[in-house]
Write a structure and sequence with these properties.
alpha+beta, 2 helices, 9 strands
Length: 159
């Protein structure tokens, strides 16, 4: 079942809550980590330069790191924010286009206590704090669904 599809045809096909021992629909490789970061002003989104979309911070897991280390690194690289807390809350399975491959990503919930200034970089050209419900032009449908579902799992409000 497809839970959400982005503008490029990539599909979120499964979201399995928990912090480990995931069963999953496929034996797809674990390739990334995404973080729903909450702070005093809402949910952190970064504007991806290449996809032209607002997304939650995250990216690939390097050979030498765990998914948690990748999650922490990606938040800093893409937004400049320092996490006060981080915990794994789910694993997602994606069907990626155009080559029709499956990949899995660990999903984390993180918090920041103090918002740091954003400095544009080669990956992200803007940052914003989203209330989780307002319309936002160029918001990735997949990322919006991830935020919605992870906040439900966590039992928290964006602001």
């Amino acid at each position: 079942m497809v839970l959400a599809t982005d503008a490029h045809g990539n599909e979120l096909v499964e979201l399995e809550p928990g912090d480990g021992d995931f069963v999953g629909l496929t034996d797809a490789p674990l390739t990334g980590a995404l973080v729903v970061v909450t702070g005093p002003e809402g949910v952190l989104l970064v504007h991806d330069v290449w996809r032209g979309a607002w997304e939650v911070p995250g990216g690939g897991i390097d050979d030498h790191e765990s998914s948690e280390e990748a999650a922490r690194r990606e938040v800093v690289e893409e937004s400049g924010q320092q996490l006060a807390g981080l915990r794994r809350v789910a694993r997602a399975t994606f069907r990626l286009r155009p080559d029709d491959r499956y990949e899995q990503t660990d999903l984390y919930k993180g918090e920041v206590e103090q918002v740091r200034p954003f400095v544009p970089n080669r990956e992200t050209d803007a940052m914003c704090w989203w209330d989780g419900v307002s319309s936002l032009q160029d918001l990735s449908a997949v990322d919006a669904e991830l935020v919605r579902r992870l906040l439900l799992i966590d039992g928290s409000d964006p602001v």
